[in-house]
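Problem: given the chain below (357 residues), write out its structure.
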Amino acid sequence: MDGRKKLIAVCMLSAVLALGGCGRTGENSPVGTPGTGPGEGTEDSRHGADAAQEGLELEESRYGAGTAPGGLESEGLPTSEPEEILVTQGGPYGEISLRLPAGWDYELCPIDSPRLRTCLYGIQFYPESAEEGFIEAGYVDGFGVCGTGLSQTKRTLAGREASVGTYDGHAYWDFVFMTEGQEGLAAFTFSVGNWWEEYGEETYAVLDTISFDPDTKEGGVCLYGEDCTAEEIGLKLSLKDITSSGATLVFLLYDAQAPQGELVWGEVFSLEVFGEEGWESVQPLPGNFAFNSIGYELSPKTARETAAGNYLLEQEVGWEWMYGKLPPGTYRLGKSVSEQRAEGRKDYMLYAEFLLN
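Solution.
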């Protein structure tokens, strides 16, 4: 389970010990969000429930199964909690790591994780005893703040100057931005008020251990480009789950009233790489290639409505069969969308740029 360790507290009431425990909730349930906490008809998704099995009491957290702290197998021998845990999350801009003291838990959040609130990827951490709330530390490619009710101070963290921001004078900080060689690293608080008095100062100790290695990169990420949107038909194109072999196309109909006719798209796509002379076509493998001649309708009837009232349609697309696995680089995928009007057809070309490592 995401490489996380399971901390096991064993109470020995007999000469023979047996281990047992409760399962965890689904991986796609963000902590501290409605429907996942205690008292809402489910078990606590933050920590496994206590269980008793032949005189053994087991408390389970979310680190994953199979090993005791320090890598020792759980063989009925009591083990002590580690003083610190090194936590690492890789991503397309570099690797993020930090150390958590005993008594803290965490969730790894790779790129496109549904748990993420603000960062592109990173680590969510919180006290084990907290029923809700967490801090999200990770990489951001841009974040704006306004001055209304905002106060900012400077603090040295991880040996570098950081900017700490707090809104409306409450006890906890809202964001921390790292600078001086660790640009892009940031941390944000979510629903931490109930435990901040006890653990707030310790959050600075955690952030004091954060590090960023821009030379260790993995995965892909969609980039913003002006050509990803066709405003005339209220449509935006992006990608997620990007690998060297393919990705998931994401069509966002953000203005369902904009199209004057039926929107249709097919399986044909183009692939370009950014080189010394700008965008260049990726050369296909030797052989003959053809796309299926099929059309898909994009409308509120065929797409999924989002919480914001937009419409979302996703489809997997693979390119290994035509181009092979792509090497690291900056690419863009082109898709044509047609608007079928009574007076005729109009075509729009949208591009989704992405970085691949």
